Amino acid sequence: MDHLHPEAGFIKLKKKDIPKDKPEYFKPEIWDSILNLQLLHAGSNQSKLDETLLKWLAKHPEYKKDALMPKSANFDLAHFPEFIEERRVLLTDALKNI
After folding, report:
1. Does residue 82 carry a pLDDT above 90?
2. Domain segments of the chain as ranges
3. CA atoms 58, 62, 63, 65: torsion sign
4. Do the beta carbons of residue 94 and residue 39 sit within 8 Å?
5. DSSP β-bridge partners for residue 3
6. N or C of the chain: less Cβ packing under 10 Å?
7. Are 32 and 2 in contact (CB under 8 A)?
8. pTM for the structure as a whole
């Protein structure tokens, strides 16, 4: 299991880089939750480490096809609130269909 957007990215964020209208998305309760976690094979998990999601997906585009990966989201950390909201819908729908 690994963070889609790595923990290191949030730790390195400066206060001025957090959107003033959505600071709650940049708290550990969100970025360390299931909304930002993904199961990865051991080799993939080892290769990802603290690489940004944007860079990692550029190298591994097959993960964009995952049913729980937001399709219309911008994968840059600056767009994390939109990513999380789309991911929340995908996870909720998946759980409803179990």
Report:
1. yes
2. 2-96
3. positive
4. no
5. 37
6. C
7. no
8. 0.85
CA distances from 46 to 22, 55, 59, 78 (A): 31, 15, 14, 24
Question: Mind listing the pLDDT tens digit for each residue in 6-23?
Answer: 999 999 999 899 989 999
Residues present in the chain in total: 98
- Residue with token string 């001025």: 16
Amino acid of residue 31: W
Spatial separation of the C-alpha atoms in residues 35 and 86, rounded to whole Å? 10
8 Å CB contact between 48 and 2: yes
Secondary structure of residue 2 in the 3-state scheme: strand
What is the longest distance spanned by two Cα atoms in the chain?
A: 41
Q: Tens digits of per-residue pLDDT, 20-43?
A: 999 999 999 999 999 999 876 655
Q: Please state the three-class secondary structure of 15-30 as a single string.
A: HHHCCCCCHHHHCHHH
Query: Which tokens belong to 52?
Result: 């940004």
CB atoms closer than 10 angstroms to residue 36: 21
Token pair for 17: 């880089």
